[in-house]
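Hey, resending since the last one bounced:
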Amino acid sequence: MKIDSTIKRRELPEHFKEHLSFTYPGSIKSSIVIVTYIMLDLLIILPILYPYHTLTVWITMPLLFIVNIWALSMLIRKVESLQFEFILFLGTVGAVGSICYFVLIQKTAYINLNIQSPYFLIISIIMFLSFLYFQVWFHNKKYTSLNSNFGKFKNLPWHYKLLAIAPPAGYIIGQYFMNKSQMAISSLMIIVYVILSTFFTYMSVKFIHRYLFMKANMHLLKTAYLKTKIKENPGGAKRV
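The structure tokens again:
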């Protein structure tokens, strides 16, 4: 993960430069609001609380509480102090969203569709961990070598696409053989939750890997950090 200290930033492939760049300070707080309070809270809190299920609440609400408190603390601080923290925050929000939506899938299947077989949970866990493992492998592979063409793919590998569509497609096929009296809306919501859990899993791995990658290559961050400082405060660039 650590790049040779003799390598200059200008010598890096574009996807390495992107992975070693900070977010523009002017968009940090708006991004916090969108990711935390819209993409997470707005979409997930009501389905978690109603209908009430004790185990679901105990698993998800403490995680959501921690993320919301963290987000609030970042919103009241100066953006100049949030560069690294924001990237780690996005990774954490991704992990929390991934877990919460996964739990919501199980709750919906158990309560709304009366799926009580342990096989549903086992298969769900296997698919969840498989996608997580793939994302970790993909990001490690992408940033393993400066000479690799892996990161230059215009489209992700075919197996990534297969994994991305497999959960919703598999569930649709499964629903075809299930009792036709079950509500279609619950089936649709599970598909939506699978998509959201998949997205947040990808987000978690991407930004946690980015945070660790940047921490391991601090010698390549000065230029990117200086640029963000200049954009935020042109008159104070010399003080950086």
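Residues 184-216 form the longest helix (33 residues).

Sorry for the duplicate.
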